[in-house]
Amino acid sequence: MTPASTMPIPELFVSYDSAEKLKKEAGDLLSWDLTPRQICDLELLMNGGFFPLKGFLGQADYDSVVENMRLADGTLWPMPITLDVSEVFAAKVEPGQDIALRDQEGVILAILSVSDKWSPDKSREAEKVFGADDLAHPAVNYLHNQAGPVYLGGPVTGIQAPVHYDYRGLRNTPNELRAYFRKMGWRRVVAFQTRNPLHRAHQELTFRAAKEAQANLLIHPVVGMTKPGDIDHFTRVRCYEAVLDKYPSSTTSLSLLNLAMRMAGPREAVWHGIIRRNHGCTHMIVGRDHAGPGKNSAGEDFYGPYEAQELFREHEGEIGLEMVDFKQMVYVQERAQYEPADEVEPGMTVLNISGTELRRRLSEGLEIPDWFSFPEVVEELRRTRPARSKQGFTVFFTGLSGSGKSTIANALMVKLMELGGRPVTLLDGDVVRKHLSSELGFSKEHRDINIRRIGYVASEITKNGGIALCAPIAPYTATRRAVREMIEAYGTFVEVHVATSLEACEARDRKGLYALARAGKIKEFTGISDPYEAPTNAELVIDTEKADVDNCAHQVLLKLESLGLIGA
Ligand code: PPS
């Protein structure tokens, strides 16, 4: 039974004294350093946000959730909450053993009493939970390329919640929200889930939804992990605070949810409903394409636009929370106000700015009208997303050894320095291997570490408004994609495939390495005895066999200009 919204929800924490004792004892246990996503999951497990889960799923629950959206005992639960670990770590753990779960600074947050250990069929998980085993889905990509190969399951004993230093006053556990609603006499509360800044249309629709449900409103944005490329939560929270002032006083509250989203559309909507129920809400707004992951690798939507609403509606009783339809609100010019799209009288002029158009206007520094958003929100967004010509960016050259990456990158660097305006750093393959990665060899593991280091440095440069030019071989698609995601959190990533053929590289053999590789004197040599996965979605492909270096660098400059990164 789920506690009614006015009663406390069970948490997994032990008392303060027991926690202190456990912490001391846990010093002797094997420790797992949690990933950022696992920290989010653990926080909601411990504070009751994931009630009725009592820990990370064991194998029987996992199989049942993947197949039927239910725990083994039949309780509705749509999302596998699993603790993925490396093979090396898993080899040290046996069911029956306790392990300490630590945050990234080494603080012990919980003890996991391991009941199950298994290697999941990730493709099946992808198909069943996310609808397709397609790496274009961010959670499927995470599953295959970031999550460890072995899952550990078992009950969790909570010692302490993860510490957050930002927006402490706005973060509430389910029980804190339940107590708040009780204190305020809020009996009906409609939750609004969001991972985006709110504009006027959102404010109108949420206010209308609350009025229709005769409920108070909880703006409940996700600040844990959202879709790669989303606006960072610091900016969003400043925007939410500005919008909060636009609601009539004491009708609406803002609280931050440290959830790691999976972008799983219909299943995610059901999951969001259960989480909001646990936080004491009675209603939730579910929109068109709720928690949608974008397009699949064939350029089509992963889920139908109303699939999330349908699945939610089907399970409303079990979720224990009512769905409120998201009314699409549009601005009617003649009436100078927002109205539900289906109520607009014929002949009226309807104005709208799509998300893509908003991003374009921000990146080009163009006007964003007052009818669309609030001036405070626009100002915040402009501070975070200056025009592209003022943002940092990364040009990432990839190609075989001797393809001409470094030569073109060097030529591009001086051309950019001639233009001026932003500092330029060249992270050349050879230079990086000397200064950052001197201990690494050329195994897949070492190459991946090398590229992630380059990605990390480039993302810092990009974040701070500079230009990073990278020129490693970077032979693996998944690693290049991980770097793209790191950079795109802060600015533009331009992948340039220097597509010189193996034959041409070998014929040039400027460093004499191909001859050595053919003679077997250099092992794991890219193109000869090691793979190179050519990019299929690079922003630019350069054929060095048809153009000289100056022209190749010029092609990149033209690309940067067309992307609005230079020139304005
Ligand atoms: S990777 O795969 O991206 O980590 O490689 P990278 O850091 O770019 O280093 C490539 C340079 O190292 C030299 N070198 C080798 N390359 C490929 N395979 C093997 N086994 C190898 N051993 C040494 C080579 O000079 C590469 O430089 P470039 O500039 O690409 O020719």
Automatic annotation (TrEMBL):
One GO term of the biological process aspect: sulfate assimilation via adenylyl sulfate reduction
Catalysed reaction, written as an equation: adenosine 5'-phosphosulfate + ATP = 3'-phosphoadenylyl sulfate + ADP + H(+); sulfate + ATP + H(+) = adenosine 5'-phosphosulfate + diphosphate
InterPro entries linked to this entry: APS, APS_kinase_dom, ATP-Sase_PUA-like_dom, P-loop_NTPase, PUA-like_sf, Rossmann-like_a/b/a_fold, Sulf_AdTrans/APS_kinase, Sulfurylase_cat_dom
Domain APS kinase: 391-543
HAMAP family: Adenylyl_sulf_kinase
Domain ATP-sulfurylase PUA-like: 8-160
The protein's name: Adenylyl-sulfate kinase
Family to which the UniProt record says this protein belongs: Belongs to the APS kinase family.
Keyword Signal attributed: no
UniProt-annotated binding residues for ATP: G399, L400, S401, G402, S403, G404, K405, S406
Pathway named in the protein's UniProt entry: Sulfur metabolism; hydrogen sulfide biosynthesis; sulfite from sulfate: step 2/3
Domain (Sulphate adenylyltransferase catalytic): residue spans on this chain: 170-383
EC number: 2.7.1.25
Organism domain of life: Bacteria
UniProt keyword ATP-binding, yes or no: yes
The entry's keywords: ATP-binding, Kinase, Nucleotide-binding, Nucleotidyltransferase, Phosphoprotein, Transferase
Coiled-coil region list: none
Gene3D superfamilies found in the cross-reference section: HUPs (3.40.50.620), P-loop containing nucleotide triphosphate hydrolases (3.40.50.300), Sulfate adenylyltransferase (3.10.400.10)
